[in-house]
Write a structure and sequence with these properties.
alpha/beta, two-stranded antiparallel sheet
């Protein structure tokens, strides 16, 4: 929120007695996570299927607000990630039944009937009003519903999971909506890589698993992408036929969204296709190397500015050259996008369009927060 020095009041009086370094750290966290008087949290929704690299994306977003993100320190299993200014809540916590209960109903967790939307709505609304909640916990380790945990609102709250935009009441509370759209072909390739090559499952069993979830995914999860303000879409590469290792990643940015100014390459509104020379951007991608493009499209009937990156780059620090060609990235200094990408070197998508476009989306979330909350996040936050 606002710098501490300029805060005249807190939402509630805070008195702190500090006797050692650990207490000092806790005190600072308590102050920095507090909402300023009258400040309401900004609420972001992220919809995506499981196994889509959401956790890396969430860390990229929270890193833009400063401080390390960590699991809520309740001393037991939790899905809630907190940092100085952010809280990330996993919507799996609103499952109606535990794993055993779902075996009885015969429904998947993708089915809306297995999720408590009334409670989700009440709690998103309460947090947005700056109130504490007692939120349920779905334990992914053993599939049980555990004792609730207390969540204190922070300046920015992110709800991530399968159904953030499914229920209209919940959707309307979101200040900005992001959807991660992994196309079926890529999802299959990823699953083969993880379950077949790394875990030894048969290709046949992987196909059956995907087919079993497909009807529910198509019916309840996929349509939410039409409600998103911003979509990160991951497609197979177009640089070479049957290439399963390279990706074509698109950032679809809907226009006329409050506080959201889409990023663009060189000239806003122009259709562009650009292949940086390998001498400036080393690339092991097939054919010409990394291809970057910009076009204008419709997304669910809305005008959208699209940025795409097809292929891989070998060295993240060389992306500084690419970053300089973009305007309106949400960065506070030249090179911030590349700097943030280097912090996540080795993470999924670090060397393709995923890393670059997720980072820009993360910086846009910060920009949107600043626009709504009318505060500035310090540039050196990392």
């Amino acid at each position: 929120g606002t710098p501490l020095a300029s805060r005249s009041t807190f939402a509630s009086p805070v008195s702190l007695r500090v006797t050692n370094d650990k207490e000092m750290d806790l005190a600072i966290q308590q102050i920095s996570m507090s909402l300023a008087s009258g400040q309401k949290p900004v609420v972001i929704g992220l919809a995506a299927d499981s196994g889509c690299g959401k956790s890396t994306f969430m860390r990229r977003v929270t890193a833009c607000f400063g401080g390390a993100s960590k699991l809520n320190p309740i001393g037991r299993e939790t899905n809630t990630l907190i940092s100085d200014m952010t809280t990330v809540i996993c919507l799996d916590d609103y499952h109606l039944n535990d794993r055993q209960g779902r075996k009885k109903t015969g429904l998947t967790a993708l089915d809306p009937r297995e999720n408590n939307f009334d409670l989700m709505y009440e709690q998103v609304k309460a947090l947005k009003e700056g109130k504490k909640i007692m939120k349920p916990i779905y334990n992914h380790v053993n599939g049980t519903l555990d004792e609730p945990e207390e969540i204190t609102p922070t300046p920015i709250i992110i709800f991530e999971g399968l159904h953030p935009f499914y229920d209209k009441r919940v959707e309307e509370l979101m200040d900005f909506k992001i959807y991660v759209d992994i196309t079926p072909e890529v999802k299959f390739n990823w699953k083969v890589q993880r379950d077949h090559e790394e875990r030894g499952h048969s290709i046949e069993s992987i196909k059956q698993q995907i087919e079993a979830r497909k009807p529910d995914f198509d019916a309840y999860i996929d349509p939410q992408k039409n409600k998103a303000d911003c979509v990160i879409q991951v497609l197979p590469t177009q640089l070479a036929a049957n290439d399963k290792t390279h990706l074509n990643v698109k950032l679809i940015q809907c226009k006329d969204v409050d506080h959201f100014a889409p990023t663009y390459l060189w000239d806003e509104g122009s259709d562009i296709e650009w292949v940086p020379p390998r001498s400036k951007l080393a690339s092991s991608a097939p054919g010409v190397g990394m291809k970057i493009y910009q076009k204008n499209e419709k997304w669910a009937g809305k005008d959208a500015a699209v940025i795409g990156m097809d292929g891989k780059y070998d060295k993240i620090d060389e992306m500084m050259y690419v970053e300089k060609q973009f305007a309106s990235t949400g960065s506070k200094f030249v090179g911030e996008v590349t700097k943030k990408m280097l912090e996540y070197e080795g993470q999924p998508g670090s060397n393709d369009g995923t890393g670059f476009l997720q980072t820009i989306t993360a910086l846009k979330v910060r920009e949107i927060y600043e626009g709504i909350a009318k505060v500035k996040v310090p540039a050196q936050a990392n």
